[in-house]
User: What shape does this take?
Amino acid sequence: EPLVRCDDAARTYGRGSGAVVAVHGATCTVPPGARIAVVGPSGSGKSTLLHLMAGLDRPTAGRVSHPGLTTTGDGLARHIGMVFQGPSLLPPLTAVENVALPLRIDGVPEAEATARARAALDSLHLDSLAEKLPDELSAGQAQRVAVARVLARRPRLVLADEPTGQLDRETGRHVLAVLLAAAAELGAGVVISTHDPRVADELDTRWHMADGRLVRPGEKTEAEPEA
Ligand code: ADP
Ligand code: ADP
Assistant: This one.
């Protein structure tokens, strides 16, 4: 069963003459273990598509479902991890406290949450940063801690919205490698949005977004009819 299925899912902001169609009817599936890059320029609708897939936003037409994630009776949020572009750590908490917090919210007892947070930091080679505050971390270190925070919950689907967009090239490569290795260990599916074709080269499948239209490999857009 796919982790996500979009059936002609659309998202329009506003209404009437000022309405913006951020995503036109998108139809796609994310199979278990898939590694998909959603590539397109700024404003093309990538972020909106990822939010729809995460269940953080609802389609204004069509349908988004999660057949492979809703079988266990747990809430959807339990199985989906989201990585954002910018700083997302809570400033007053240390790295290990940041990673442990979502586990605590999930109901994991404090000692176990801390142990799992430390294990996630160790597996990303961040153990030396565990007691640091976000202010004391570089942008790349902070983003790796944010990846650890997502992966510590053992999601079955990781959605990352321009996760390397604010990093220099080498740092971005490192964060991406860490994210992909950790997701592979969990067997999680990965969808990463990016405007950078080099990021997409690291993944298995490339989807394109242009002006809110999703084009998957082998499909033709309306703008490029079959010759
Ligand atoms: P991308 O992630 O590719 O940069 P977005 O999904 O953020 O694209 O945006 C797609 C389109 O929707 C853009 O035209 C953007 O301005 C518009 N948009 C996004 N979020 C909102 C919002 N909350 N209200 C109004 N328009 C929005
Ligand atoms: P420019 O070539 O314009 O200087 P950079 O080389 O700094 O741009 O890369 C821009 C973005 O692309 C950065 O966010 C970086 O993390 C990302 N990036 C570049 N190459 C790769 C790659 N091979 N794998 C992952 N991310 C990459």
About this structure: The CA atoms of residues 29 and 212 lie 17 Å apart. The chain is about 30% helix and 25% strand.
